[in-house]
Specification:
Elements lengths: L2 H12 L5 H9 L3 E3 L4 E3 L2 H5 L5 E2 L5 H13 L4 E5 L3 H8 L4 E4 L4 E5 L7 E8 L5 H13 L2 E6 L8 H4 L2 H5 L3 E6 L5 H6 L6 E5 L11 H8 L6 E3 L5 H12 L2
Parallel strand pairs: 3-4, 7-8, 7-9, 9-10, 10-11
Antiparallel strand pairs: 1-2, 4-6, 5-6
Helix pairs in contact: 4-5, 6-11
Length: 248
């Protein structure tokens, strides 16, 4: 049950269509559904304004299918799935309508149509190798009806590429800066814009990058004001947080 469904339920009470006791029962029953291998948080939409998202990594194809089907059967219109393998996508597509992006491994099951989007989130990557993480962020933000502008391969090794897009950056309500290697992109963008910058370190880089740890530490030590950092390769977390900021 999400906030809109809860409001509709309360409207029915106000209109005399159902009793207060009936409404209370609907609200109280099953704050989570226990599937044995997973406990589905059915009240997350009420608490946070967005339904539970499925993290696909480490789950079997069968588990992803059962969790998704259960959420959809409970009345949720669609479900966002991250880190979803092509095999899991193939399995689920036989059971329900599915949008799947193999690059970012993002899936959206159920009835979904991309909205026009509101506000303005700019997503910039240091290199082409960072695009899978960027697309996870972009598709997450778009799923929650945010307008997204993509600026890919604008890293500091050819900083003129970034400067050529200074006007686009200046119009952003929030910027997601995604980079591996030394992670300098976030600091440079942080010194160019007047909005929050969400830095995403990626595991892209040679041996001493320590699978993203070098970029993470660089971003945490940024001297630019207004830069916050999410975990390594966490495009979903950046896209979700950017959407919250964008709609404030």
């Amino acid at each position: 049950m999400n906030k809109d469904e809860l409001k509709a339920l309360l409207d029915k009470v106000a209109g005399g269509e159902i009793s207060a006791d009936e409404a209370l029962t609907k609200i109280k029953i099953h704050p989570y559904d226990d599937l044995g291998f997973a406990k589905i948080d059915t009240h997350r939409g009420i608490r946070q304004g967005a339904e539970e998202v499925i993290f696909g990594a480490g789950k079997t194809e069968e588990q992803i299918c059962k969790i998704t089907e259960h959420i959809l059967e409970s009345g949720t219109k669609n479900v966002l799935i991250t880190r979803m393998s092509p095999k899991a996508a193939e399995c689920l597509s036989k059971k329900t309508q599915l949008f799947y992006d193999e690059l970012s491994k993002v899936g959206i099951a159920g009835d979904y149509e991309k909205g026009e989007g509101v506000g303005n989130i700019v997503i910039a990557t240091g290199g082409t190798s960072d695009i899978p993480v960027a697309e996870e962020a972009a598709l997450t933000a778009e799923y929650y009806n945010n307008k997204v502008v993509r600026l890919y391969d604008v890293g500091v090794a050819g900083i003129h590429r970034l400067m050529d897009n200074a006007e686009i950056l200046s119009k952003a309500r929030v910027v997601i800066a995604i980079a591996g290697m030394e992670g300098a992109l976030a600091s440079v963008i942080g010194g160019m814009v007047d909005c929050p910058v969400i830095a995403v370190p990626t595991s892209v880089g040679y041996g001493a990058s320590f699978e993203g740890l070098s970029a993470l530490l660089s971003m945490l030590n940024s001297c630019a004001s207004g830069v916050g950092v999410v975990n390594i390769d966490n495009g979903f977390g950046a896209g979700y947080l950017a959407g919250m900021i964008n709609k404030m």
